[in-house]
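pinging the channel bc i need a second pair of eyes. not urgent but kinda urgent?? the chain im working w is below, pasted from the shared doc
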Amino acid sequence: MLHRTFVATVLLLSASLTYGQTPLLPYPDTTSVEGIRYHVGVDGLAITNARTPFWFHANQFGTVPLTAPAGLLRVGLRGLWGDVHASRKPVYSISIESVGQASIKTKLLVPEAYAGIRLGHTELYAGRRREINGLTDTLLTSGSVTWSGNALPITQIRLGTREYAPLKFTRNFVALNAFISHGWFANTDSMKNVLLHAKSIFVRLGKPEARIHLYGGINHFVQWGGYSPYIQDTFLANDGRMPFSWRTFGKVVWPTAVEDNADGQFSGIDTLNRVGNHLGSLDAGLEINGSGGQFLFYTQHLYEDLSGLSFKNFPDGLFGVRWKTKPRGGAFQLRQLTLEFITSLNRSGTGAKGHDDYFYNGQYLDGWVHRRFVIGTPLFIQGRDLPGAVRQRNTWFNRERPVSNNAVQSLHLGVYGICFHRVTALLRTTISRYHALNTGDTYPQVSLGLELHQIPLPGKLEASVKVGYDTGEIFQSNWGVMLSCRKLGFLRW
């Protein structure tokens, strides 16, 4: 009781320092006017089963609990100083958001807290920021394969470009979008002091005003360093400690093989494979702008080792198409359709260099997970989140792997429209078939999510309604409703 009172007090005291952002939709920092945006919001969840429907918690940056009923209180602010249109003058930004959860356990989360500076297309920030990495449709996607916005953001220092920066010597035909960052994973019972290395580089071909653009790039993420009291196998770590040195960092940034281990800092798995847990995606896209709207065709090829980089695991990854319509009059408007196909069954085959077990390399016991949520696609499910009956039915789901349910094929459809000239509507439908690769058994699963946002209320308040439904052989029939109310505000300098 005391803890709940403390959480509520902290949130209410910070309500005057909060910013405006649709709490149920992940989208980036697009603030472009000097001043402070703030928001205060409350959410209530009710369900017919103990588990929150998939499209309530998926890709919500770890802020919606997996169990319900639950109540959420969200408060935050975002401030901007400087003229974003002046390319030779710095622009400063800050953001902070806190989310209080009242469910089986009471929690206070901070999904965003950072300070940044940008000059032209270059940006540096330190802290925690909501991000989605990879070439995809961020509004209706099922989730980028390696960094989807599903987990609570990781604290980082990040340097990179803001959107695509045209290269003047190419007459703006070539543009780059890249970043590099150093981060810190939150400690868990199993792993301590684990570090993050992340970088990406993307190229766009075609002038900004061109009808056709080509995109291509690579994302690279690494878990490295750290300590685990539970790792006793010397092949995996030296006294439970993963290597941490400038030499190690060099092997993380540029993942070449360890050829000299005279100082003994590397374990057997480091010399056999690479130092750290490496993963990422190779992305490509084609954008076409026409009189009927805009089409974006995109793909993300998942890799975890050299076999993935050489496409031995093809077609594992994500394939998608997005259609954006041009705004038209009328009370009801269809604005966007997104269709995606996700598969992870090839896994580089069954040979000596195959059997890729995505999001786990044997060393990092929590896997590619942060603060209880998978960092990559939410369609990969942790073993601890599976119902006991499912784990008992097949040993595949009961393996000693943090993300044991990671063999899946899914078809995903997203629809976005506007009703009554203001209310936004989103529909997500995901049909999946999970595979137990040891027996060949399959387990169908369907998840639906319908959202209505920006419903006007008296007192300049806004309401949102969300309905979710799951059914299948992984998670049984379950309905849920989420009601939200928020207050937005803007203070100009």
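so The two ends are 40 Å apart (CA to CA). and Confidence is low (pLDDT under 50) at residues 1-28. — does that match what u expected or am i reading it wrong
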